[in-house]
């Protein structure tokens, strides 16, 4: 059995060389399709990553009443910590808030150095983005110490909506593109096999079993898919590394980031190679059904 397998491998490689132009056209189709698919997946996966970063950066600002003393602030912190799904709590005094605003908006806020209108604030982070609204509602109920609690409802709700839509449409788009890729590559491989129908018929006439006939074509499709994935993998490695070097430093200023190239590149390379081999092999298998009963 092992001997037959290696014989089929050698036969498939010979067939690739023997059918030069058809092999080249098939590999080209695989290359173009996988390049488009890889580019689309890189964009979608990083868009989902950025959407998740946006979700995770949504925080609840709990503004403390003017008259609340230090003991009251400590009690308020303890009460906030008891709210379910609170991950962390940071405190920013009104002076720190004024300094932050002045750094952002310039000297125009310098007028308030002597009469600071801002409030002390607790910055509350949730362990999951979907609990932000519930945490805000509970914090607002602590009226003894809380002036207001807010998470920027309009903007945050828009971010959550964008994140959800990105995941949904990204998944749908990826599935559609994979289906299109299977269709294109399968038809290209089918053309290769159709040009060799006489060869298949001769093999059947001399008594070759279906499995013996099928395996070289099946492996040939796999080789076409694997060879067609080489250029997309190289382009993705070099292109993504360059894009990461240019874009990620800008995103990091806002606490966002792209997917790290190290692991991501190898995962994408493996994925493209597997998709190429699978599509090529399946394309050959489907094409053979016209001549052989599986």
Automatic annotation (TrEMBL):
One of its GO terms (cellular component) is plasma membrane. It is a multi-pass membrane protein. The keyword Transmembrane helix applies. GO terms for biological process: cell division. It is found in: Cell membrane. Keywords: Cell cycle, Cell division, Cell membrane, Membrane, Transmembrane, Transmembrane helix. Belongs to the ABC-4 integral membrane protein family. FtsX subfamily. Part of the ABC transporter FtsEX involved in asymmetric cellular division facilitating the initiation of sporulation. This is Cell division protein FtsX.
